[in-house]
Specification:
The structure holds four protein chains of four kinds. By secondary structure, chain A is mostly helical. Chain A has a single domain (18-578), classed as Cytochrome c oxidase-like, subunit I domain (Cytochrome C Oxidase, Chain A, Up-down Bundle), CATH 1.20.210. Chain A has 19 helices and two strands. By secondary structure, chain C is an alpha+beta fold. Chain C has three domains: 2-61 and 73-104, Helix Hairpins (Orthogonal Bundle), CATH 1.10.287; 113-252, Cupredoxins -  blue copper proteins (Immunoglobulin-like, Sandwich), CATH 2.60.40; 263-393, Cytochrome Bc1 Complex, Chain D, domain 2 (Orthogonal Bundle), CATH 1.10.760. Helices cover 36% and strands 19% of the residues of chain C. Chain C is built from nine helices and eleven strands. In chain C, strands 3, 4, 6, 7, 9, 10 and 11 form a seven-stranded mixed beta sheet that branches. A four-stranded mixed beta sheet of chain C has the order 2-1-5-8. In chain C, a hairpin with a 5-residue loop joins strand 9 and strand 10. Among the domains of chain D are: 26-121; 184-258, no CATH class. Chain D contains eight helices and no strands. Chain D has helices at 30-61, 67-89, 97-121, 163-175, 177-183, 214-220, 232-241, 245-258. Chain D starts with 29 loop residues before the first helix and ends with a helix. Classes of the chains: A mainly alpha, B mainly alpha, C alpha+beta, D mainly alpha. Chains in contact: A-B, A-C, A-D, B-D, C-D.
Chain lengths: 591, 232, 394, 260
């Protein structure tokens, strides 16, 4: 009994009144580094994840810029064997090269971009960084359920990423991030391919551990008084994400394992020459990789729900609809993987998968409708996070709507594997996830680092990113419908103009990120100190200090209001004079 | 899981050596109480088991698909296996599953001696499984040339895709055997910790976790056995 | 009004696709262009609606200091049901319409013209019912040896596609359909090309004269490989030349070469069709070794005993055998400095073509039989004699 | 835990916590565990018996048993066994709802995975029959070194032919055809002749005209071609009637190939 009793006594009192910020260095510099490397504090792990994934985003982004610059002009070889036209031809100046060699280089960079962005940036991205930092805070918990597992997951992430980087340093892989057999099992570059596949395999464990941790945390560590429908929508989204991570990732594990066996031992399960079936690989692959698309986008949707509500001071419209649509998307995501394979599978499966694919459009559409409806009668500010929310709504709507011709069978036969697909998923993944990630980083930046950032700088960065992104990818819709296949290192002359607009757009996009980098660095070193609750948020992370103390809360928080009761509650840390409440209306609240 | 709290007050020194480890266990500081921690750990373990099941589902899926595509090769391949070794291994694993369940029961009742015996039997069963697998299945078959994929070197094959059968056989039983090895390491750790008195009626999370893992290893074999040895 | 709408629709199609679909799968009421337009208008409606409301709210409900947000309902069940159900109905239309069009791209009538197609790193090749293949080539992008495949207009055509190595995908953007080309099974590519518009309204329809002097009208469509397949993926293109059905029959029965054609000419054609992606004939660098000044020289291999000058001098046929072996089993002897990237052409070349390739390679070398090989003029003469006898015997 | 000594341990209720509705600590009676073990052993015997009996019935009594009976019975028994393990050994019967739900959802995901994949791969030939046929080319299999891959990684495209034929040819080249035939088929192929459910779809994809090289002739032998007299349909019937004929028939077949 004693175990229980002692802790029951402490309920509501975590007993750490004199603690400082989790960021405070307590010992000498080496000890501080050691403290960070061995920490089990979810906040520190979240910050370490944030920097790790942003570094990977930088690497993948450099690769993307390389691709865009290569595509500025079509590659042509003149009679003397010299490259003409291609913007990167100076790299091969004075050498005789072949079209195939250019293609080879391009394919390696293309794979590097895809593999880094997917496995090392966007899948762990939001959940492992912002999720790790804010999920326990929003739940009012001291930490995630299994703190050491959490740290292990970060180390596994780093270890896996090192394999990926090793693979690139060894000369890179040209399999594409999808590793389609039999190309991936027969292409040259044995150590690199195995290293890259192992990287994805290892990163899977990191993903599983993060997801597992979040599910248990959400189940068992909610603050007293917090029912399932008192949770912020970000938690719902991360929870749904975690379910997908746990259930889908093992399948990519066994797939990649088989791929490694295939390359090392030639076991032939996916090898047509040995009786295997390459389409089986595609099924295995997409059983993971389609749900994982929702691992990428669901947390972004969660961020949008929360950020939008706070910056509009408006209860989110249709809370339950959004919460359930997160779960519905997670569930349906397991039923639709075949829509990546309309051109390689049988007619019956294509029909079934196309039919089911449209079901995933409904909860997604419901979310967008709800967000737009939440703006109604709000009190909208134009802070950087909110600008990003508007950018998200604009770009994600395009991304979602362009999914329709891809889910429709007859139009997909044309658009499959074309630039239209490239544009579509960049609108969803970049216009959705990355934009929401940026919204989230700006929204929670003061809480994480205790400093405000420059609003003007943030807005400038947002504008550049928005313009650059649209220039880069909107053109690609037209490229795709006009017949430009993806993963081409060169193209026929007709596509030159659109490719050039796209490349110049990507440079503007890169400039936008440079602006953000400057703004963040400025904020870290010179930014003014952030108040406890700069935006007036009502979720629990705003109730603690800025930045949070080591054990999150001085007292275990007890939930007294919902996450979005903006017209009933003065936000923590605010003077009621600065926050006029509307006249209470009878029956106008409680979702 | 284990405590991470560095702020725990030191235990009173007198009588410390007499208090078994399991009674001195304190739950992680971020949990409200030990039961919450136990429940949370159990959900975590079940989630992990879910990932295990889905990992194996890949091999079951490959089996099902190749059975649909090349039924005669798979049936012929099944014919090469001797159900007696498979059956013996099934019995061995079932017994080990029973003994680890008994070991947990013993720990719950603080019957440390019997817990130890049961854990040892479990470990020995696991070892026996591997020995049988290796000496009577893997080694003779491999030296016959019954190997996966391109390594296939058995001249008396009758069907074009018998190499695919051996790929499935080796990979699925190989992944399973890897899990058995992992289980042996974990059970050995349990035996070591149990000897230190780490598990008792109020704290046996680790035992419960390893037990569940071991049962899932058994469960997978329960399905692999008929699929590989009996279905034709 | 209807005319305006049709005009706008045409504009949208032109904006996205360049021109209307040139096949039955793409054009017509059930075609994918019509489905695309339907999806386009649905999307435009919802996008404008949502962005309109968003823009309105941004202006109307922007924050004013000291003024709280007005209370508003937190949910509205009928509204939420409506915006779930109405889009669902539209989605159902898309699905059925799309499935209908998809089936058209899968099914061909029994009388459809059947052509075999092989995709290979990194070239397409077709075998027609008469056994002939592409005989003309053009330049497209960075590829100077793009085969021209002649197909009939207004006739259902079914390509039976198969890959010799990895997965490729056959895509004719103007036909609005593509399908993967698999190494372990056949897949069908079904299309009915629209009639040639010879009124002059379609500037893509042109007239030309073939080698035999027949004048014919045609319309060209580009074929792409849409499934990533490696280094020269972006050069794996072809031209589909749609001609009048009557001319197609003529063309089908005039093979580009027979046993009487000069072997060197045959070899040059085969090179263009199958080898030019990786082997240059002018000494240039590419994936594979160049054919210029190759024949008759000693060779080092990474995985076999080298072909020494001594062996070649003893019997120049060693080189011919080496060529033949490399075509059938490319991995048997991989030349030092190159990777084993070549797929097997086993069964794809006839005897005539094989001999043609060898003759062509000889003709490209400064050590070809015309040049006496130092030290062994009589052996050389014997070989030439043998070859002449062989050709005479055919 | 400073007062651990005071903690009076009660086996029936180790935490005194059963009132708060959590399900973690259940002590399963040993009789139940032992009973489950015995049941599991019984079902193991049953499933082996079922498979052996079926084989016996087909060979000795010539029963015609549809192919699905075997798999349904075997999998049914396996499901019962799995259920017993999950419910009692893994204590799902006593566990909280969330874990049960989780387990069921996992099984559902597995079902989805297998069913949808099979839906595609087993239904390719609805419209064009040759879509479901099999052509072997591409991948690494177009190439095999001298002896399988026992000499290291197989080179792509360095040789051609299905593995099993190549392995056989190598053996015969090394030991002679007599040795091969004398060796016979000592392995138990028993199950392969039970019903016609195990037969492949016909590999109608091959056109001799397109691939008229030696490689493809191997495939033609006995692999479901309608024009092939030694197709497996015939073998199946033979075995069902006369098990002893088995080896001889195959040896002849193989010999025939050798003469090509």
């Amino acid at each position: 009994m004693t175990t229980v009793d002692r802790n029951l006594d402490q309920l509501g009192d975590h007993g750490h009144h004199d603690e400082g910020s989790y960021l405070n260095p307590k010992y000498g510099p080496i000890a501080t580094v050691w403290d960070w490397m061995t920490t089990v504090d979810h906040k520190k792990i979240g910050v370490m994840y944030l920097f790790a994934v942003l570094f990977m985003f930088f690497l993948g982004g450099v690769a993307a810029l390389g691709l865009r610059i290569e595509l500025l002009e079509p590659t042509r070889i003149d009679e003397t064997g010299n490259l003409t036209g291609a913007a990167l031809s100076f790299l091969a100046e004075g050498e005789t090269v072949s079209q195939a060699a250019v293609g080879q280089a391009y394919n390696r960079v293309m794979t590097m971009h895809g593999a880094i962005m997917v496995f090392m940036f966007i899948v762990p991205g939001i959940p492992a960084s912002l999720g790790n930092f804010f999920l326990p805070l929003m739940l009012g918990a001291k930490d995630v359920a299994f703190p050491r597992l959490n740290l292990a997951s970060w180390y596994i992430y780093v270890f896996g990423s090192l394999f990926g980087v090793f693979s690139i340093l060894m000369g890179g892989v040209d399999t594409g991030w999808t590793f389609y057999t039999p190309y991936s099992t027969t292409t040259t570059g044995q150590p690199q391919v195995i290293a890259m596949v192992l990287a994805a395999f290892i990163l899977g464990f990191s993903s599983i551990f993060t997801g597992l941790n979040f599910i248990v945390t959400t189940h068992k560590l909610r603050a007293p008084g917090m029912g399932w429908f008192d949770m912020p929508l970000f938690i719902w989204a991360v929870y749904s994400t975690s379910i997908i991570q746990v259930l889908a990732t093992p399948v990519i594990g066994v797939t990649l394992l088989l791929l490694i066996f295939e390359r090392v031992l030639q076991i032939g399960i996916f090898d047509p020459g040995l009786g295997g079936d390459p389409v089986l690989f595609q099924h295995f692959f997409w059983f993971y990789s389609h749900p994982v698309v929702y691992v990428m986008i669901l947390p972004a949707m969660g961020i949008i729900s929360d950020v939008l509500a706070v910056h509009c001071r408006k209860r989110i419209f249709g809370y339950r609809a959004i919460a359930f649509s997160s779960l519905a998307i997670a569930a349906i995501s397991f039923l639709v993987w075949g829509h990546h394979m309309f051109t390689s599978q049988g007619e019956l499966a294509a029909m079934v998968f196309s039919f089911l694919t449209f079901f995933v459009a409904i909860p997604t559409a419901v979310k967008v409708f709800n967000w737009i409806a939440s703006l109604y009668k709000g009190s909208i500010t134009f802070t950087t996070p909110m600008l990003y929310v508007f950018a998200f709504l604009f770009l994600f709507s395009i991304g979602g709507l362009t999914g329709l011709p891809l889910g429709t069978l007859s139009t997909d036969l044309h658009l499959h594997d074309s630039y239209f697909v490239v544009a579509h998923f960049h609108y969803v993944m970049f216009g959705g996830t990355v934009i929401a990630f940026l919204a989230g980083i700006h929204h929670w930046w003061p809480k994480m680092f205790g400093r405000m950032y420059s609003e003007k700088g943030g807005a400038l960065g947002c504008a550049l990113v928005f313009i650059g992104f649209n220039m880069t990818f909107f053109t690609q819709f037209f490229l795709g419908t006009q017949g430009m296949p993806r993963r081409y290192a060169s193209y026929v002359d007709e596509f030159t103009l659109l490719h050039q607009i796209s490349t110049y757009g990507s440079l503007i996009l890169a400039l936008g990120f440079v602006v953000h980098l400057v703004v963040f660095l400025h904020s870290l070193f010179l930014g003014e100190k952030a108040p406890q609750n700069p935006w007036g948020g009502l979720t629990l992370e705003w109730e603690t200090e800025t930045p949070p103390i080591e054990h999150n809360f001085h007292h275990e928080p007890v939930l007294t209001h919902g996450p979005y009761d903006f017209d009933e509650v003065v936000p923590p840390g605010w003077d009621p004079k600065d926050y006029p409440l509307p006249e209470p209306t009878p029956g106008g609240h409680k979702h | 899981m284990a405590s991470i709290d560095t702020h725990q007050p030191a235990l009173p020194q007198p009588g410390k050596e007499k208090v078994p480890l399991w009674q001195r266990y304190t739950h992680g500081h971020h949990w409200r109480n030990a039961d919450d921690e136990f429940d949370g750990a159990k959900i975590g373990i079940w989630l992990f088991l879910a990932t295990e099941v889905l990992l194996f589902s890949g091999m079951f899926c490959a089996y099902a698909l190749f059975r649909l595509m090349y039924p005669e090769s798979i049936a012929a391949g099944s014919g090469y296996l001797d159900w007696r070794w498979g059956g013996l291994n099934t019995v061995v694993l079932l017994i080990s599953s029973f003994t680890i369940a008994m070991a947990i029961r013993n720990v719950q009742l603080n019957q440390q001696f019997w817990a130890r015996i049961n854990l040892l039997i479990t470990w020995l069963c696991a070892a026996a499984f591997l020995v049988i697998k290796l000496t009577f299945e893997y080694i003779p078959k491999w030296s016959d040339g019954k190997r996966p994929g391109a390594l296939f070197d058995y001249p008396f094959a009758q069907h074009a895709h018998e190499n695919v059968w051996w790929s499935i056989y080796y990979v699925s039983t190989g992944i399973h055997a890897t899990h058995v090895i992992g289980g042996m390491v974990l059970i050995a750790w349990l035996i070591y910790r149990q000897g230190k008195g780490a598990y008792g009626p109020t704290h046996y999370t680790m035992m419960e976790g390893v037990g569940l893992y071991w049962h899932i290893v058994d469960l997978v074999w329960i399905f692999l056995f008929p699929l590989l040895y009996l279905v034709h | 009004m209807t005319a305006t709408l049709a005009g706008i629709n045409d504009f949208v199609i032109k904006l996205f696709f360049g021109q209307k679909a040139d096949s039955l799968v793409g054009s017509g009421l059930g075609g994918s262009d019509a489905v695309f337009l339907f999806i386009w208008w649905v999307s435009v409606f919802f996008f404008v609606l949502l962005m309109g409301i968003m823009g309105y709210c941004m202006v109307k409900y922007r924050r004013r200091e000291g003024v709280p947000a007005e209370p508003s309902p937190s949910h509205n069940t009928p509204l939420e049901i409506a915006w779930s159900v109405i889009p669902s109905l539209l989605l159902a239309v898309m699905f059925f319409w799309g499935f209908n069009g998809y089936m058209k791209a899968q099914m061909a009538p029994s009388y459809a013209e059947q052509i075999d197609l092989i995709g290979q790193k990194w070239a397409w090749s077709m075998t027609y019912s008469t056994g002939i293949g592409a005989s003309e080539f053009t330049t497209l992008g960075g590829n100077n040896n793009v085969p021209i495949f002649v197909v009939p207009a207004e006739t259902p055509v079914r390509l039976r596609m198969n890959s010799a190595d990895v997965i490729h995908a056959f895509w004719v953007p103007d036909f609005r359909t593509k399908l993967d080309v698999m190494p372990n099974r056949y897949t069908p590519y079904v299309f009915t090309a629209n009639a040639l518009d010879r009124s002059g309204a379609d500037d893509r329809v042109q007239t030309t004269t073939d080698k035999k002097g027949n004048e014919y009208a045609y319309r060209d469509h580009i074929v792409y490989c849409a499934e990533y397949c490696g280094d020269s993926h972006s050069e794996m293109v072809a031209v589909l030349r749609v001609v009048e059905p009557s001319y197609y029959q003529t063309w089908l029965n005039t093979p580009p070469y027979g046993v009487t054609t000069e072997p060197v000419e045959v070899g040059a054609l085969v090179w263009q069709a199958k080898c030019a992606v990786c082997h240059t004939v002018d000494g240039g660098v590419s994936t594979g070794p160049t054919w210029k000044d190759a024949w008759g020289y000693s060779r080092e291999f990474t995985n076999a005993d080298s072909l020494t000058q001594e062996m070649i001098d003893r019997d120049p046929m060693e080189w011919d055998n080496y060529i033949r072996e490399s075509i059938i089993l490319p991995g048997a002897k991989v030349r030092a400095g190159f990777t084993n990237a070549m797929p097997s052409f086993d069964g794809q070349l006839s005897d005539v073509e094989m001999r043609g390739v060898i003759a062509y390679m000889r003709s490209l070398s400064d050590r070809d039989p015309g040049t006496p090989i130092p030290g062994y003029p009589e052996l050389e003469a014997e070989a030439a004699e043998l070859e002449a006898a062989e050709e005479g015997g055919e | 835990m400073s007062h651990a000594q005071e903690h009076e341990y009660n086996p029936a209720d180790p935490h005194g916590f059963h009132e708060d509705g959590h399900h973690g600590h259940v002590i399963v009676p040993w009789q139940v565990l032992l009973g489950v073990l015995l049941a599991l052993l019984f079902f193991t015997v049953l499933t082996v018996f079922q498979a052996q009996f079926e084989k016996h019935a087909v060979y000795q009594w010539g029963w015609v048993i549809p192919g699905w009976v075997n798999i349904v019975l075997a999998m049914g028994i396996a499901c019962i066994k799995g259920g017993l393990v999950a419910l009692f050994f893994m204590q799902l019967r006593y566990d909280s709802g969330i874990n049960v739900l989780l387990f069921l959802f996992t099984l559902f995901a597995v079902w989805l995975f297998i069913m949808f994949t099979a839906l595609d791969l087993n239904n390719r030939g609805h419209i064009t029959e040759w879509r479901s046929g099999e052509v072997i080319s591409g991948g690494s299999g177009v190439g095999f070194g001298e002896h399988g891959a026992s000499k290291g990684r197989v080179d792509i495209n360095s040789a051609a032919g299905p593995v099993y034929m190549r392995v056989k040819d190598n053996y015969i080249a090394e030991h002679g055809i007599e040795d091969y035939e004398a060796h016979g088929h000592h392995d138990d192929h028993g199950g392969s002749a039970l019903s016609d459910a195990w037969q492949s779809r016909s590999h109608s994809g091959l056109t001799p005209g397109l691939f008229s090289t030696g490689v493809w002739e191997h495939l033609d032998d006995g692999h479901g071609h309608s024009h092939d007299d030694h197709g497996h349909d015939d073998h199946g019937d033979d075995h069902a009637e006369d098990g002893e004929h088995h080896d001889e028939e195959h040896a002849n077949d193989d010999h025939g190939e050798e003469e090509h």
